[in-house]
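B., you asked whether I could sanity-check this one before it goes into the benchmark set. Here's the sequence:
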Amino acid sequence: FLFFAAIVLTAYFNGIDVASYFSSTLKYWGMWGILVLAMVPSIKCGIGPNFGVSLGIVCGLLGTLLAIEFNIAPRVNAAMPGAGPWMAMLFAIVVSIAVAWLVGIGYGKLLNMVKGSEMTVTTYVGYSVIYLMCIVWFRAPFSSGEIIWPLGGAGVRNPVSLESSFAYLLNDFLGFNLGPVYIPTGIILCVLLVCLVVHFYFRSKTGIAITAAGANPTFAKASGIDVDKMRIKGITLSTVLGAVGIVVYTQGFGYLQAYAAPLAMGFLCVASVLIGGATTTKATITHVIIGTFLYQGLVIFTPPVSNELLAGTDISDTMRQIIQNGVILYALAKAKGGSSNE
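And here's what the prediction gave me:
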């Protein structure tokens, strides 16, 4: 937090438009919020940070592509003008949740087979599924002209525009200017609503059982809790949140990228929740809210400040990598590589 404050002050005293960058920080906080929230269930159930959230992401991308393929927004608009984008986004979310739920169950069963090495396996799974889906996307039998390659006649182009469906829907909904700062009310409310749902879920009987299974598996077993089942439920919820999160994320950009673009998103999500104060064994919604804001703020403010102080260089991506990987390394070192989960 002190580093972020120092970066903002440095930007201000160097004549950089702080208000504009702060507006961008709020927007990206909303776009990344649910993706980072996906880390909470996996940590609570004892698996640790879900580096393989890419499984949920590809499910969300599939749901979004199907919303475009079936022309949901224009069809609904023809009957109910103005409702098309909302129905298209709802369709994408429902399909994404259904697919991610099934994928998450299989993912959870896999992780139950490799107890003690979950973080390593989730990383491999995350990378593998992205590269596997690159092949799938390239040959996917879509027919919409907005999705397929212009000349090839098949496969998913990169990027795919969401202009005909739900581009910028949440970013613009109820948005207003507070002085020079733009407040993207819609996307902020969306993230807070999902956070509230997750909060109440973990206060339910099932949620408490998931937390108990992750905190102390031996005690949980003695209390009659099926630890393996709770771990599957936790990672399934994480996968579902990843799917919903990417739908919210893509609407903020106005397009989606279906190939290697999501490759490092798991690392960014892990870094965000850890920078908010979470560990590999404990995470809360507060860590998500604070960590996402701080991480996105650092990523957005650091490039103009570094370019201003070190004129003629461009080390913005280097600084982002240092922050991202440094936070992950620090957290893993504190947890002794995750051995506390065994």
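One thing to flag: The radius of gyration is 20 Å. Otherwise nothing jumped out at me.
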